[in-house]
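User: Assemble these into one structure.

Assistant: Restating your components, then the assembled model:
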Amino acid sequence: MMAAMRLPSALSFLVDKAIDMPDGDAFLTALAARLVADGVPLTGGALTQAAPIPSSNGASGFGARIPDG
Amino acid sequence: MIEALGLAGPLDPGPVQPTDIARNWLAGLGTGSVQQDHAGGPANGAMLAWTADRPFSETEAELLRGVARFAAAPLALLAARSTLSALLTTYLGRRSAAQVLAGRLRRDPGETIRAALLFADLRGFTELSETTEAKEVIAALDAWFDRVAGAVHAFGGEVLKFIGDGVLAIFPIGERDAAAACDAAPARGFRRTRRHGPSSYRPIRARGAAFVVRRGAASRRHALGQYRHRRPAGFHRDRPGGQPRQPAGGPVPAARAHGIGLRRLCFRNNTAADPARPTQPTRHCRALRGIYAAAVKPRRLMFHRPDGHCRPSCFFS
């Protein structure tokens, strides 16, 4: 029997739970929380994606501020 | 406690890219050093950026690069889901999009909903489209649709259709009596004057859906051309002079002259070439005032031409 692969919590989140996030906002905040738990001293993060809104030809993004990072 | 916020991209795509906006914002949070990694390669379009209260160690930087690689697949799925939702919401409306996304795909008799109805279009658009470069017309239409659709959504409505330069939107009123709903929903801005009796509400059936509408004007009737709609007595339309057309039977009563039960606003350009042309009186309707302020008025300024053509108009029933 293969032993469970040990991954940092951020990577295991991306493998197991990220697809259940409702949107990019929730995705970024959950990922940032895992990274902080892994010991990365983050103070902020941002996700930029191509805008899915037909009336907008730019891109949308989300930012996360981590005051306690 | 992690604060999340949306980063707005540039309205006018230029030298400032959305990734620059994220980088600049993050640079102000930490030490100024920002690590950016493409999630799934540059063609994917997703970018993850991070900053810390000190420069990242090589181990941390390697972890963040690994995060970007692992994030490619879920981000692609999130983007596809978001795109599908946005497209369905744009072209089907919020209610129908939610039902389709929930798996309601079969044809059926549909549902009956009660809603107030808004039709808005650009007055003089045909002439504008004939005398203006196609690229400018498309840009003007995009800007117009952005404004009116955004205002409709802001006031709890949803866009059903884009019809040429017109927008057909509904404001569902639920199971309440139509008149009471209009009276009791100031948040949505539906108020009806006392002289408009309940008989002024007329059901129109369209593809299994029934809208509670009021007697309409020419543009609204045009918008509802596909519906089985019986032209009501006292139907009238605006004449160039701004006065309602008088039916052959003689002057119409005051209430009917204003379109019985029709909550209609017809915004005229006060800066039209003919200053003597009377401005159509507006009715008290908070939603329409909001829509007008958010969508129509800016458009009116942008569309102002010396000959007074192409004025936005809103019809709300």
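The radius of gyration of chain B is 25 Å.
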